[in-house]
Each structure stands twice: as C-alpha cells, then as structure tokens.
Amino acid sequence: MKSILPAIAALVFPPLATAQPQWSPTRPVRLIVPFPPGGAVDTIARIFSSRFAERLGQSVVIDNRGGANAIIGSELAARAAPDGHTLLIVPSGHAISPSVTKKLPYDTLKDFAAIGLVGNGAYVLVINPALPAKSVAEYVALAKSRPGQLNYAMTGHGNATHLAGELFNVLAGVNIVGINYKGDGPAMTDVIGGQINAFFSGVSSGAAHIKGGRIRPLGVTTARRTQALPDVPTIAEAGVPGYEVDGWYGLLAPAATPPAIIARFNADLVATVSTPEMKERLLGAGIDARASTPAVFHERITKDMSRWAEVVKKAKIGVE
Question: How far is CA 291 from each of CA 118, 252, 260, 298, rounded to the nearest angstrom?
C-alpha cells in the first residue's frame, strides 16, 4: 500500500511548473528610423517610443538613418544582431520597394521578423481650389476630358505618393501625370500656388491647409474614413471603386530574433498603442492607432508586395 502513495500524491498534488522568465532587454533598444528627422515616420516613432520604453523597462534610442528611399536604414536593421536590441519602424513603402528597385540589399520578407502594426495613416487627395472639380467623380470626368494635361505632385519615384497617383490612373482609367518633388513642403506649396493641380498629401500635413481653404480635399485613400478628417469620403466611395492606399506604419526586427522577444515587443506595442493618450497623440499626427499581431502585419506586407507589383506592371512604372 505504501508503494502506491507517492504515485497517488503526484496525481493529486502535481509538482508546480517552473515559470519561464519573460525576456527583457538588458540595455537601451535602438529604434532605426530609415528617414531623416522631422518626417512622418520619425514623428510617429518619437510619439510612441517614450511610453513603449516605459513598458520595456529600457530607454528607446531613435537612430535616424535616412537615404535611398529607406533602403539604407532598413539594410542596417536587417544586418543587426537578432538579440532584441535593434528594431526598425517602416511605412507602407517598405512593401513597394521590391517592385521599383532593381536589387535590394535585403529580402523584404525573409530578412525581417514582423512585430506589429502601429497604426494607419491615410493620404488625402487634394487639389487647387481653382480646378473645376468639387468631388472625385468630377475630378475623374475632368481628367478624362483632358488626357495627359492634368498633373499631380509625388515625393519620390516609387514611394506611396507616386503609387497612389498611379493606382488612381489605373482604376479610374485616366492619365494624370506625376511630377517629382523633393518633399511634401515644396509639393504642397505648388498645389496651393496653382503651379500643380493635385497632391496625395499626408492627412496631418494637409489638414491645416484644408481648414484654411487653401486646398480642396476630394477623398482619403484608405478603405474607411479617417477620424482626422471624418467629413471627407474615401476615394472608393466617392467614385473609384476598389481604390485603397493604406499608409500603415509598423515595427520589424532582424529575422532571427527569437519568438519570445517578438512576443514581448508585440505585447508592449499593443498595450502602448491602445491607451487613450497614445490614440489621441497619434491622431494628432494623422494616424489612426491600430496595433496588430505579428502574423497580421506579416500578411499585410506580403499582400501589399503582390498588389503593388501588379500596379507597377500595369502602370508601366520604370524600375530604378
């Protein structure tokens, strides 16, 4: 009888499982921003990084590595040690680069591990008020009546402002010519001045000019209306069905980063972005806070890469 007591005791009182310690960074975490200071990606990184750092228990150091349309900073992150001390924040253009760049120094999917989305930032199609169009439908009709005569500003070959215009051309069946500018500021100045007809502006940079009546908003590029401009319809609902350009932002890590580290970063990212304070601050920058799982973010990048490759092919955009 005594011989079976230990077995019975083990069933009734199983040994306590040994808790696995949660991973935590042991020194400051470097967050690479693959753009110069002051732009949209840099602004978003700085908005959420302080609260993100509080949850991590380590400071987050912003490392601006601009150049080559985000390729320089992205390559640096891809080659970093996968020990949880280097992260990369990217915009939706991360999924466009493979289609417009001949040979990237990294594999967009294989060399990075997705952590999660931070939020979605719509672009808004704005025009000079002197242009005789009060809606997307009227703008399309005007463009069809003047093939090749209307133009729009873009801020870099193959970036989101360029592809937003080319997708519009493809889906609306029009020929609006893209004119390259060095940045948002000069592009917006020329739209306001009437030197160029239209621009797919970031919501945050366009909002003040919209309120001042200096430019006319026709539609936002996302699938649903943005909280930052609730009265402006989506381009899809206003006359170009199927149109969607989502200016998302998200966090990546080097590909071989262990799952436990990715899980910790994701949990802290979701918790940070979900607070009322952070939602309000991001909305002030034109971003709808919308965190995700690593799997959802990875799927979004994959789908966007395929979608933009098709647009680039249909629009016959040259590869550089």
Answer: 5, 13, 18, 13
State the amino acid at position 298 in one-letter form: H
Return the residue matching tokens 């873009």: 154
**Nearest Cα residue to 66 out of 40, 34, 97, 105:** 34
Q: Per mean pLDDT, which range of 9-13, 40-44, 190-194 is the poorest?
A: 9-13
pLDDT digit string, tens, across residues 247-296: 999 999 999 999 999 999 999 999 999 999 999 999 988 899 999 999 99
Phi-psi region of 37 (alpha: psi -120 to 50; beta: other; left: phi over 0): beta
174 vs 18, 133, 149, 150, 179, CA distance in Å?
64, 15, 11, 10, 16
The string of pLDDT tens digits covering residues 106-132 is 999 999 999 999 999 899 999 999 999
* pTM for this predicted structure: 0.84
In degrees, rounded to 5, the angle at the alpha carbon of residue 120 between the alpha carbons of residues 64 and 293 is 90
